[in-house]
Amino acid sequence: MEILKKIPECKSVVNNLKKKCLIIGFVPTMGFLHEGHLSLIRMARKECDRVFISIFVNPTQFGPGEDFEKYPRDMKRDISLAKKGGVDYIFYPAAKEMYGPYFKTSVEVKELGSIMCGKCRPGHFAGVTTVVLKLINIVRPDKAYFGQKDYQQLVIIKRMIDDLNLDVEIIGGPTIRENDGLALSSRSKYLSVEERENATILYECLKIAKDMIKKGEKDLEKIKKTIITNLGKNRFVKKVDYFDFRDPGTLEYLKRVDKKGKKILAATAVWIGRTRLIDNMIIKV
Ligand code: PAF
Questions:
Q1: How confident is the model at residue 17 (pLDDT cuts 50, 70, 90)?
Q2: pTM across the whole model
Q3: Distance from the CA of 153 to the center of ligand 1, in angstroms?
Q4: How far is the CA of 154 from the centre of ligand 1 (A)?
Q5: Which residues line ligand 1 (CB under 6 A)?
Q6: What is the pLDDT of residues 52-67, one digit of tens each?
Q7: 30, 31, 41, 90, 161 from 186: Cα distances, Å
């Protein structure tokens, strides 16, 4: 496994692989790898000739006062996990390698980037799409893998790739959960023992929403009210940024279940103490 820190170095490796017509799989990450990332790496390993990951805690997707400084980092552990997972190349640039002193460009997917998490984290998705586009231009993968836990991010990236006619297939990997249902996330490292126990409430609420829909409830606003009341009863829940029902393809806001066979995205962002967690579930009606 090779670690590439410079953009020209990475581009030259990619050029050589392209000359040999090898299929490149790419898993962009911010490091502190967990089973969610490793499952994406396994998918890439199965489907591609060479597997790249990037490890880059992207400063432009963090707002002022967010956790950029304290975002967990452990390169030694990441290298060992990547090696065991069969990664061929880690692209590991410094911030000044990615954003030179004259950097001015931003890529934004309008509307989709300013709802749900984008409403609570202004500028976040422009930071994500800009860095993902840069990474894709550097690594030039045939297939790029993103976790469905960040469902809105996945939809936005697919939209950008389509809108800008980029030749890369975007593949979503399933959310990986702990035994008690908590979706794996690097940020759960911030939780105290008690907060960690109570963090399962996100998944529990998604399951309640699913049950209510399966039992025939058509009024999604009513379900939302029940869920938000439920969340409010837990003393570890400091704030509910949103609990929404959306169309899984377009992220259009849904108020009612209209058709049988339709899929509905239930998505939520909740502060457990000082940690913001997100989760979602696709519910088939
Ligand atoms: O999902 C993430 O870890 C990040 O948003 C990504 C896609 C690596 C961009 O920095």
A1: very high
A2: 0.97
A3: 8
A4: 10
A5: 28-30, 58, 61, 128, 131-132, 150, 153
A6: 999 999 999 999 999 9
A7: 9, 8, 16, 19, 26
* pLDDT for the residue 19: 98
The answer to whether the CB of 113 falls within 8 A of the CB of 125 is yes
Minimal-distance CA residue to ligand 1 atom 9: 128
Q: What pLDDT is stored for residue 261 in this prediction?
A: 81
220-232 vs 201-214: helix crossing angle, rounded to 10? 150
> Could you list the active site residues?
37
The minimum-distance atom of ligand 1 relative to the CA of 128 is 9
Query: If pLDDT is split at 50, 70 and 90, which confidence band does 88 have?
Result: very high
**169-192 tens-digit pLDDT:** 999 999 999 999 999 999 999 999
Q: Hey, which of 26, 27, 30 would you mutate to test ligand 1's pocket, going by the most ligand atoms within 8 Å of its Cβ?
A: 30
Q: CA distances (Å), 129 to each of 21, 24, 44, in order?
A: 27, 20, 21
The Cα 129–Cα 161 span in angstroms is 10
Sign of CA dihedral 140, 173, 158, 48: positive
